[in-house]
Amino acid sequence: MPLLLDYRHRTDATPLLSRRHHIASFLIAVAYGAAAGALTGSWALGVLPALQLIMLLNWPPGVRLRVVLAGTALLLTLTVIDYRLVFEAAPERNWFALAFFVLMLPGITVTSLWWWDVLIRLDRARIAEAKLAATQERLRVATDVHDLQGHHLQVIALQLELAERLMPQDGAAGMEQLRAARASVDDARQGTRDLAMRFRSVPLRDELANAVDLLRAAGTEAEATVDPEWAAAPASVLGPVISETTTNVLRHGGGEWARLALTRAGRMWRYEISNDATADLPPSVDGSGLEGIARRAEEHGGQLEVLRGGEEFTVVVTVPVGRGDAA
Q: Is 85 helix (H, G, I), strand (E, B) or coil?
């Protein structure tokens, strides 16, 4: 077991043999092999435990195969010797089963280690692929921001330069260019918001799943109910609401349980989150967080409702169907 645990966390810099971790294992293996060999009269069974540990060492690439082949050849030789010295004279003893076990164990061990190495490489490849995808996404975002801001800033610079030239001769025309420059600034700001919203957009089902995972990671028993037609709900409205209310539960909730639900009731989308409230619920829970949620809901024709009952705190946000953008 110590050698297997070390093998799980090994690196290229890990030494072949660690005296502190491995010496006890080798002493136990040698003692066990000596006892087993003495009791059964089998040389192969006596050598097998120590040979098994040798195969679990952190051998360099390509060396382990040669070690296995050499060890298997040694065991085969000892198995033949055992047959001639012990089992040939006692045919009632199951020599074939022992020989099969002794000769197959090294190969099975190395195959298991090889599968572990394959899984490790696949996991590292998955992580590398995720990092590459994130890097490509950052480059794409940077390109979009550069193109958007570069265009608007160039237009604004030209308009301001033209206004500067026109002001001495024609103040009205100069003021018109200043107003156009201000409008270009508003366009650039709105374009930046739209770009940020496009990259931040997450499907509501995933948003709810992320909220549940976050609550469970904090030790809260959480679950979510999602309407089958969730894709038609206004993600730009309810997405930030889900994030904000989840943060409120983490900050001010009792931490025992939380229930989230996104359902459609007639012409309204209803998002509800309930949790166990602490006895001394802080006033900040009614502060700017819920005010922002209420303002966002009202801007899209919806409303916010806060319910308290005993040890339960519930936030309900309703938004009309067809308002806002779909996911």
A: helix
Determine how β-strand 253-265 pairs with β-strand 221-226.
parallel
Is 0.85 surpassed by the pTM of this model?
Answer: no
Q: How many whole angstroms separate alpha carbon 296 and alpha carbon 244?
A: 12
The first and second tokens of residue 130, run together, are 């995720």
* 30 token code pair: 């040698």
Q: Per-residue DSSP letters for 270-317?
A: EEEEEEEEPTT--GGGGSHHHHHHHHHHHHTT-EEEEEEETTEEEEEE
How far apart are the two ends of the chain, measured CA to CA in Å?
51
261-314 pLDDT tens trace: 999 988 899 999 999 876 555 544 444 478 888 888 888 889 999 988 778 899
Length of the chain: 327
C-alpha span between 159 and 190 (Å, rounded): 19
CATH architecture, domain defined by 204-320: 2-Layer Sandwich (3.30)
- Edge-to-edge strand list for the sheet holding 312-320: 221-226, 253-265, 268-277, 312-320, 303-309
